[in-house]
Structures are given as structure tokens and as C-alpha cells.
Amino acid sequence: MPYFLRAENYQEKYNNSDKERTQFYGRNGELPIRDSLHLSPLAKVLQKIAEKQNKTDIHGEQDYEDNLNDGFLDGFRIPRLNIDAFGKRADTYSSFLKPEETKRKNLAIATHVQANRIIFDDKKQARAVEVNWFGRKYSPRCRKEVVLSAGTIGSPFILLHSGIGPALQLKRLDIEPIVDNPEVGENLQDHVTTLLGPFLINKPITFSLARLMVNPFKIWEYIINGTGPLTTTVAGDSIGFIKTNKSDNLGPDIQYHINGVAPYSDFGAFFHKIFGFEGDWWKEFYGPHYAQDAVTILPIVLHPQSRGRLWLQSSSPDDPPYIDPKYYSHPQDIQTMIKAIKLILEMIENTPELKKFGFELPAEPVLPMCQNNSSTHKDDNYWECFARHLTMSMYHPTGTCAMGKVVDNELKVIGVDNLRIVDASVMPEITSGNTNAPVIMIAEKASDMIRNYWGLPILNEAKQHVTRNTTKKKDEL
Length: 477
Ligand SMILES: Cc1cc2nc3c(=O)[nH]c(=O)nc-3n(C[C@H](O)[C@H](O)[C@H](O)COP(=O)(O)OP(=O)(O)OC[C@H]3O[C@@H](n4cnc5c(N)ncnc54)[C@H](O)[C@@H]3O)c2cc1C
Prior knowledge:
By secondary structure, the chain is an alpha+beta fold. The chain has helices at 2-7, 19-22, 41-53, 92-101, 151-161, 167-172, 209-213, 216-225, 271-275, 279-286, 331-349, 352-355, 380-389, 436-453, and strands spanning 8-10, 31-33, 75-77, 113-120, 126-133, 136-138, 146-148, 164-165, 179-180, 192-194, 196-201, 238-242, 254-259, 294-301, 309-311, 322-324, 358-360, 391-393, 419-421.
């Protein structure tokens, strides 16, 4: 928690004297947190409904008004966002790195550089990184340690190319093993979802790309003021968390993103390509509804039991890795997805306020690949088929260099020296929600661990959380 708070720059609404609220917010960090600059009319309707559905916060109290960060366990909210004052996503480069770029003499940023592998000396200490920059190889050396933050796909990929991984497989690819660790690249976890819908809406109140693109005023409003419907995230008119398994002490097991946008609002032009789906069935399934307003709901399996993996196809860092996410390979995950679909359908069915806007799941056409399973939306077989064909990632891959298996509790790579990993790959288990803020929290904590290890003072209030289990490398100071 102190590291989440340290990263946050929450700017609105509650004054500092409201302790109940402010204990969950940081105000002095780099990562901006704001209310959405534009809410669709639908978001406001959903919020009203959510107020009825929401249950309790951690104190067991009804908590209608606030947000997804203050400890509530069950219910729907309009999410707050990491956006800048113009509604653009506040990514880690623009929030953390860019402001330091001109201030620090000891920071050099190079882009379009591909890291190939870590180079070790004969004591297995990381000494340099081999990189490829526009076709030429360089090996910048490190004086203290290398911090690898290439993400859940990139970090194990680089480790494997550096000889850290399953020795036999590496040898077969002519990569000299340095550490035999079969766990590198295993334990891949992701939040699997599907495009539930289209829920047809009988009023022009959803985000329609086609409608906005022919409206010069809306485009002008966005370019000049950074306001208006084009600042919407689309992906978060309402977000819900539901805990169906009350017997465990984990967080919610299902998440919903309710998006006031149809997946066909581009009239079938390119969205399906972005998601990696074939155009034929997309057109057959969505074509009859083009131009109709619709809502899409993403039900998400938060605690997947399935475990995927990645491995190398060759010894060349220019060849991408093979990735098998193994979605739904564990039977519990598809059961959770079916449960999630049926729960939200039931909620919609029992919410008359929504029916005023249509919110109709059309009986026809059914997903072409599932015609033989059943033609009724009430049927588990149909929903299983639907989720298995219209399978999507929430883009939250984690776990391929898991703490305890590939890195230790200070994020140092097991079996070598002077090499740490700081990114989503170190999570042993995926979080019960979106992964961006947790990765930033990991990075905040890692920065203290690194400073502590090398004998530098630790930054401000999160200090007390890092002194345990750290080992200062005195001989190298
Ligand atoms: C489309 C999309 C939307 C998302 N939306 C959200 C959201 O709304 N909310 C949320 O919480 N999370 C979201 N996520 C997830 C979130 O972005 C990730 O969990 C988070 O960025 C992971 O951080 P990371 O540091 O582990 O990896 P990354 O952010 O992926 O950073 C890894 C970096 O390493 C670079 N790299 C990789 N290999 C090499 C190499 N060999 N050489 C040099 N550089 C290399 C990559 O280019 C990348 O810049 C989204 C992800 C995607 C893809």
C-alpha cells in the first residue's frame, strides 16, 4: 500500500482532512489519477443502477459514491483513470521518465534499441547487455547491476537468450546454459475475457466512431480543448467486481468492463484485425447490426487456474518467441466465465431502468461457429462455445519470471549476480484486477530495494517496508 500511495498523484474532490478517503490516495507521486473527462450518457444511467446493486465496503458499510480503490468488495463503479489533463493516457514514460530526462546527468534514454542478452563474467556476474541498434551490435557495460524490465514476454525471452532457463532445451538451440532453471517462461497467467453482446441500445447514447468522425465540432473540441466525447476511454463506462466464491479469502473472482461502444462501430473496417479475428464470421455475426448503438460487456476471469508458457523458436533474438497462453486449459476457468456471463445477463434482465434503453441481446444471429451448440442464449453450451471462440486477452500477461522460482524476494535473478527483474513477469500470481498500477507499485518498491542494497538512502515514507531481507553489497561500495 505505501508504494501504491507513493506513485499516485490524485488530484480531485476530497480534501486532505477527509481521512477515510485520503488514506487510499497518494497526492505527491508522478502518476495522475483523475475522473473521466467525458462520461457517456449511458455511464450515468449505469452509475444509478450500480448504486442500487453495490453492496459493502471493507467496513461492511454501504458505499455508493466512491471508487474502486477504497477497499470495497462487490459492485460496480465508474472508474478513475490514469489520464493527463487532456484526457490522454498517462503512461509510465510520460509520467515518470520524461520529466527527469533533462534534469539528470546520469540518465541516458535510447529508443529503437533491442536488448538481445545479458553478458556474464565467469563468476556469473552480469557485466554488460548486448543490444542491437539499427543492425549494429553494442555491449554497454554495467558498473553495479542490470535491471531488466522488458515485460512478461520480453524478460524471460532475454533470460533464455542469456542462457538462463531449461538447460537441455537451450543446448538444443545452441545456447550455452549458465543457470539450469526450467521455470523461466513458465507460469504465464493472463486475464481472459470475451466480447459479450452486442446489447442493442435504442437511443444514440453510446460511443460511435462513425458518428463522431463525421462531426467536425467534436473533433475540433478534442484538438483545441482536449474535451468532449473523443476523450472517452470507451473501456470503462462502468467497472464491476464480483466475488462469487465467498469461502476463500481472496479478492473478487470476476470483473466486468461495461463499454458503451459496439465492436462494429467502425462498420467492420479494422477492429476485428486489431483483436486478431477473421473478417468472415465477424461480418456474419455483427453485420446485421452495423449502425445500431450497442453496449459490449467484457466479463473477466480474475483468478485463472490455467497456466501458459513461452519458449524460444531459435537462438536468434530476431525470431519472436512461441507463446501459448493456454486459455481455458483448466476446466474451472471456463466454468467461471460461464458463471460470469449468466450473472450479468441476469442482472440486466432484472434491471428495468436498462430496458428503457433497449439493452436487448438479439436472438439472431448467433455466433456462426456455435450454431450447432445451441441457438438459445440461455444455454451453458452456447456460452462455452462463444467464450472459447471469441476469446480475448485483457492484455494482462504476468508471471513468467515468478518470484520464488526465477527471482528471489529482492527480485534478483536466482543463480547469477547483479541482475534484477522489475516488471509484471515477477508476479507469482496475477492480481485480482488490472495490472498497470501493481507493476508501478513493484517498481517503486524495487527502487527502494536497489538503493538499500547499494547503500544509498531510501526515499521518504515507504522506507520501513524494505529493510527486511536486504543484503548490502559492502565489498562493492
Ligand atoms: C493494449 C493494452 C492495454 C492495456 N490497458 C491497461 C489498462 O487500462 N489498465 C491496466 O491496469 N493495465 C493495462 N494494460 C496492462 C499494462 O499495460 C501492463 O500490465 C504493464 O504495462 C506491464 O508493465 P511491464 O513493465 O511489465 O511491461 P511493459 O509495459 O510491456 O514494458 C516492457 C517494455 O520493454 C520493451 N522491450 C521488450 N523486449 C525488449 C527488448 N528485447 N529490448 C528492448 N526493449 C524491450 C517493450 O517494448 C516495452 O516498452 C494494458 C496492456 C495493453 C497491451
